[in-house]
Structures are given as structure tokens and as C-alpha cells.
Amino acid sequence: MENKIILIIKGNQLLSNTWRQELQIREDGVQGETLIVGKRVTKFLPYENIAQVNITKKILSADLEIINKGGAKNLVVKAIKKSDADKAKEVIDKKRGEVINNQKNQSQNNFGADELKKLAQLRDEGIITEEDFQNKKRQILGV
Question: What is the dihedral of CA 92, 97, 52, 7, to 10 degrees?
Fold first, then answer.
């Protein structure tokens, strides 16, 4: 995937009591600055490492927290518009879903190939017939 930026969300410096934070939602993941031990650090989370996205809505704004699957070094963007938080969550959840579906498809394809190799070996050893092999092959391939 390329690093194309899909959406940029900017926080409000006055409401956050920090700096004006920015979140970039890209084709390959999300990137933003967060505080780690009092220092501003740029953090990047690929979609496959994102466990969930939480929105904390306040009176005038919202905070967006992107949870790292490892449980540490989450990415938090404070004082953004509520509508921007909702849009960011929607886009991130959609991209996460695409990544999860791609991983499932790859896993299923690998499983099918492994099964066919095992079946071919059983056929070659005379344990199953050619007809049994072809029937199972069609079933695995969904043909």
C-alpha cells in the first residue's frame, strides 16, 4: 500500500491545553503526535495493529483514542470537532475491516493450498482415488 493521505483531522489548541494536534489517516495506517514521557513523539499505527477506536465526547469537542493491540503507546488526539471524530472513527474502522478481510482471505487461500498438497500426496500414495481427490479439490476451491 502507498502512503496516500485519506483524511487529516486537526485538534483545537485552546481546548486541548497542549499543542494543535493533527491526525493523518493514510492508506497504510494512522499517524499523529502524542505525548510520551512529556515529549511530543510522532506515532504511526498500521491498521493491523489497531484494536479499536474510542471517542470521548465533551461539551465543546471530542478526544479520539486509537488503541494499539499491544495495549501500550495508544494514539490520542484531543479537542477535535465531534463530527471530525465520528468521521475519523468511521474511516479507520472501514480500513481496519478491509485489512482484516484481506488477512482472512490470505489465510483461507493458504489453507486451501496446503489441503490440496496433502490430498495430492494421499492420491499419489494410493490412499484416496483420483475421483475422491477431484471432488475434494472442487469443494476446497468452491467450484
Answer: 0
| 55 and 109 share one domain | no
CA 107, CA 68: separation in Å to the nearest integer? 23
Which residues are 63's β-sheet partners? Answer: 56
Alpha-carbon distance of 120 to 106, in angstroms, equals: 21
The model's pTM:
0.63
Query: What are 10-22's pLDDT values in tens digits?
Result: 877 665 556 668 8
CB 10 within 8 A of CB 80: yes
92 shares a domain with 128? no
As for how many domains the chain has, the answer is 2
